[in-house]
Design goal:
Blueprint (H helix, E strand, L loop, with lengths): L6 E5 L19 E13 L5 E11 L3 E2 L2 E7 L4 E7 L3 E2 L5 E4 L6 E4 L2 E9 L6 E4 L16 E9 L2 E9 L4 E8 L5 E8 L3 E6 L8 E7 L20 E5 L6 E2 L16 E4 L4 E2 L4 E9 L6 E9 L7 E5 L9 H4 L13 E8 L3 E8 L3 E8 L5
Antiparallel strand pairs: 1-27, 2-3, 3-10, 4-5, 5-6, 7-8, 8-9, 10-11, 12-13, 13-14, 14-15, 16-17, 17-18, 18-19, 20-22, 21-22, 22-23, 23-24, 25-26, 26-27
């Protein structure tokens, strides 16, 4: 569907008014929007759609006097830290790693905050940009930013998970809203390096259910005869209250050896209930350069036991990056490989409205007929 009226960019870096950025309160250094991407998506009570857009704000002059600088939140103000250029590796444009012998230590080239962008019910036009409701770091475990919101509506409340980044930990935090627009931070729900936590849009057996994606430096090999490839994969967890989580014993979605996108897999859109089961869109990554190629696939999980995978479409991608969409802003691109990162879904009647981050640069909307998932 790429290139049609049903596949378009809706929000771009140039749409961000950085004069209204939370960083302006205390940071005098010139910045720019490196990306406006990976939006959470939900439908508001008034029928409009809401994107919760990740704004990655970066310094215009990151390197001064042989040192690379990064932005950090503190309770008093936004501050700058710097590292000697000869002490870092800058192969990935999104981050740099410190050349230290014991552990892989990273710093970011931008600080992320979340901007609510209200759309028309069909997702084709912007209604309002709610700078007054922007979500910025608010605790030491978010000192390097909040990233990649996912929003699920459950029992008339909106639950939003985000990745919170700091030197203390790389964790998942939860916000809750009563109207889909104003969110209150509830704190940490998953600890270090568990990304892509996404709540199902509805309970299973009276309990909250979520996709998770634990990360680590070591993974163990499957037997040669196994169809699975080792590496990051999608697990499941359940909770009585959305705050305290127990992983399910059975594994979830794993990369398969036959798939080109099995380097790692992770959750994308919140699983939504259909008459066939829980439908979710997830991402798979093909090894290519420092970042990899990201594509979107889909799966169907059992309604009563989501650890049972009823259908897994991991060969032909549901969505791939489309350079034609970002051609007008190609001069702002910084990733060397194609990336589409699906992060939200909403019911549109005979179709689904799907929100993705395109090229870690802009917000993409795709209208997918429900017949595709029959």
């Amino acid at each position: 569907m790429a290139g049609t009226n049903d596949d378009f960019l809706i929000f771009r870096p140039d749409d961000v008014d950085l004069a209204r950025s939370p960083l302006r309160r205390s940071l005098a250094e010139p910045t720019y929007a490196l990306g406006a991407f990976n939006p959470g998506l939900t439908r508001l009570p008034n029928g409009n759609l809401l994107l919760m857009v990740r704004i990655a704000e970066a310094l215009r002059e990151p390197v001064i006097d042989g040192r690379i600088r990064t932005i950090r939140w503190t309770p008093q103000s936004y501050a700058l830290e710097s590292f000697a250029l000869d002490s870092v590796d800058m192969a990935d444009p999104r981050l740099f790693s410190l050349r230290r012998p014991a552990h892989r230590i990273l710093a970011l080239t931008s600080l992320s905050w979340l901007l609510p962008v209200e759309l028309t019910p069909d997702g084709r036009a912007i209604v309002a940009i709610h700078y007054d409701r922007a979500i910025e770091p608010a605790a030491s475990y978010q000192e390097y930013g909040v990233e990649d919101a996912r929003i699920s509506r459950i029992d008339n409340l909106w639950y939003m998970t985000v990745c919170s980044v700091s030197a203390e930990r790389h964790c998942t935090t939860l916000h809750i809203s009563r109207n889909g627009l104003d969110y209150a931070l509830q704190g940490i729900v998953l600890d270090h390096q568990n990304k892509d936590m996404i709540l199902f849009e509805g309970k299973v057996g009276g309990r909250f259910m979520a996709l998770t994606r634990p990360l680590g430096e070591v993974y163990f090999a499957y037997p040669d005869a196994s169809p699975y490839a080792g590496g990051p994969s999608i697990n499941l967890a359940q909770s009585p209250d959305a705050l305290h989580w127990k992983p399910l014993d059975r594994p979830g979605i794993r990369g398969r050896k036959g798939s080109t996108s099995a380097l790692k897999v992770g959750g994308g859109s919140p699983p939504i209930r259909t008459d066939k089961g829980w439908l979710l869109i997830y991402h798979g990554v093909e090894m290519r350069g420092a970042v990899g190629i990201y594509r979107s696939f889909w799966a169907l999980l059992d309604r009563d036991d989501p650890s049972l995978i009823l259908r897994l479409e991991d060969e032909a991608p549901l969505l791939e990056a489309d350079p034609a969409l970002t051609l007008p802003i190609a001069h702002q691109a910084y990733l060397p490989t194609p990336v589409v990162y699906t992060s939200g879904i909403a019911d549109g009647g005979d179709h689904y409205v799907v929100a993705s981050g395109e090229a870690d640069l802009a917000c993409r909307i795709t209208l997918l007929p429900k017949a595709l998932f029959a």
